[in-house]
């Protein structure tokens, strides 16, 4: 799937990556189910791989029901 509903709004992969990152990104892959529950509300979590810069690739995670988000940076 290319677009998903997050907190009642339809988002593209690029918009989802921006929600996780907090700013615009260069490129984003397709949105996927993350097979995990949100640690804050128990809702479904989705993931998106994106490039915030030319030299970095990040996988971001976002709850579909609340404001919780995270990424795989150490």
Structural class: mainly beta
Topology, number of strands? 6
Taking pLDDT < 50 over at least 5 consecutive residues as the criterion, the unreliable ranges are none
**What's the total helix number?**
1
**Radius of gyration (Å):** 11 Å
Termini gap: 28 Å
Give the strand order, joined by hyphens, for the main sheet. 3-4-5-6
Overall morphology = globular
Average pLDDT: 96
Order of SSEs, N→C?
EEHEEEE
Largest sheet: 4 strands, antiparallel
Strand content: over 45%
Protein name: Small CPxCG-related zinc finger protein
InterPro entries: DUF5795
Pfam families: DUF5795
Organism: Halorubrum californiense DSM 19288
Overall description:
InterPro entries: DUF5795. This is Small CPxCG-related zinc finger protein. It comes from Halorubrum californiense DSM 19288. Pfam families: DUF5795. The protein is built from one helix and six strands. The protein has 74 residues and is mainly beta. It has one domain. It has a four-stranded antiparallel sheet, with helices on one face. A two-stranded antiparallel sheet has the order 1-2. A hairpin with a 5-residue loop joins strand 5 (56-63) and strand 6 (69-71). The longest helix is centred in the N-terminal third of the chain and has 9 residues, at 13-21. The mean pLDDT is 96.
């Amino acid at each position: 799937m290319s677009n998903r509903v997050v907190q009642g709004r339809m988002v593209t992969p690029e918009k989802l990556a921006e929600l996780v990152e907090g700013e615009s990104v260069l490129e984003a892959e397709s949105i996927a189910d993350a097979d995990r529950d949100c640690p804050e509300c128990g809702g479904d979590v989705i993931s998106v791989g994106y490039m915030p810069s030319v030299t970095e690739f990040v996988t971001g995670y976002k709850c579909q029901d609340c404001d919780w988000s995270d990424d795989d940076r150490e």
